[in-house]
Amino acid sequence: MFLSILDILIGDNVEQNDIQKALIKARSRVQFVPWSSAAINLSIGSRSPFLSRSQLLNPAIHKQQQQHQLQQQQQVSGLMLSNTTSINNLFNKILKDYDSFMKRGAYLNWYQNKEYEKLNGDIMAEFSDSREIFHKVIQEYKNCESISYLDDDDEDEDVDLEEYN
Q: Could you tell me which residue ranges the Tubulin/FtsZ 2-layer sandwich domain spans (predicted)?
């Protein structure tokens, strides 16, 4: 399930009608979390915002770009950024691998020396805290698939404030 989507399209020959059809098709295929609007944010531009000003002002580069643009007039570049709950599968695998490494004590020799602990404190406590925080992120992604996700928000804030005071 998707939490949010941003699409960026860059091209000179972008037809609004084609974009509208593609958005309608995408909305029917994409499943959003129940508490979120099913909006796909879209940004359209004629040239990349990532080109530096010097690249645009340099005549040699500009000439090369013009030739390249003539060759690819019909080309449209796109980028999609999304936040999706399917990342939880990867997070669970990472946590499982982490637990396996910790059970075997793998790679801990790099961190368990007296000088490191003098500078940074108890490294095993840091690892334990990091695992707990990562587990909370996994739970948060799992919980956000529920329609009542936003209803529990006030209770969670009270608990978090008490935890850190």
A: 2-95
pLDDT tens for residues 64-115? 666 665 555 556 678 888 899 999 999 999 999 999 999 998 888 877 776 7
C-alpha to C-alpha distance for 65 and 75, rounded to whole angstroms: 14
C-alpha span between 73 and 66 (Å, rounded): 10
- What's the whole-model pTM score? 0.65
Look up residue 62 and give its two tokens: 């500009």
Whole-angstrom distance, CA of residue 46 vs CA of residue 27: 24
List, in order, residues 6 or more apart from 10 with CB less than 8 Å away: 44, 45, 46, 47, 48, 76, 77, 78
Terminus-to-terminus CA distance in the chain, angstroms? 34
Angle, in degrees to the nearest 10, between helices 87-104 and 123-143: 150
